Structures are given as structure tokens and as C-alpha cells.
Amino acid sequence: MATDEEHIRPDGVDDLTVEALGNISEALEAVEIARGHLYAFHRLSGTGDLTLGKGVAQLREAGHTELADRFERDLVGRNVLHGRWTFQVVEEYDDGYYATFKQLEKEARTALVEGRRHIYESEMKEDRRTHGAPGHEYRPGSHE
Length: 144
Hints:
This protein is mostly helical. Helix 1 (15-61) runs antiparallel to helix 2 and helix 1 (15-61) runs antiparallel to helix 3. The chain has one domain. The chain has helices at 15-61, 65-74, 86-113, 119-128.
């Protein structure tokens, strides 16, 4: 196997530990995607509220005052969850679940594999690549 210290398993680390850390890493990747969707939700909800405000102003200008009043009272600027706008949802997620996940994943890697990342994937790459073939190099700049 080619050497790339930051991606090879330290001596004495068993397969199950590498696989467990690989699954935890994969779970974190899913949480990262979920976090991205949460930020998209935040942006889209904010855009929706601002655009709604424009539409309500146009309703009012067109003489539909009662309907415009109802939109303003019941929907414009409304919390998306009890007591929360989307920025508060994002902050609570970031500071709670997400921060805890990131911290524990890093602590596990530090305790078990000297902080190294993607060992499982690195070993999968080594197993699946065609040694010496173009496009199958071990890392950038290598020719093996």
C-alpha cells in the first residue's frame, strides 16, 4: 500500500474500529447535508416572507384592504415554529445537535486513530483503484 500518513490506520487499530469510524463519518456527512437543507429552508422562508410582504402591499394598493390586513395579521413575519423564526431554528441546531455531533466525531477519531480522517475511504480507494493506471493515482502528484 502507498503511504499517506494522514489517511492510513495507525498500528493496532482493528477493522471494526475503522468501519465504525467510517459509519460515523458517513452519518456526519448526512448531517452536513441536512444542515445545508436547513440553511436553504432558512433562506427560502425569508425570501418567501419578504416576497409575501410585497404581494400584500400590492393587494392593499389594489384596494383589497381587508384581505391585505388578514395576510399581515396572520402570516407576514409569523414564526415558523412556536417562538422561532428560521434564524433561531438554525442557531439552535448549530449550537446543539450539530456542534455535539462534530465534537464527538472528532473526539472518537482523536482517541482511536490519532485524529486521522477518512481511513475507511482511503483503504477502499486503495482496494478499488488500478495501480499504475492514469486516473487511479494514490494522491495528487503521485504516479503510482
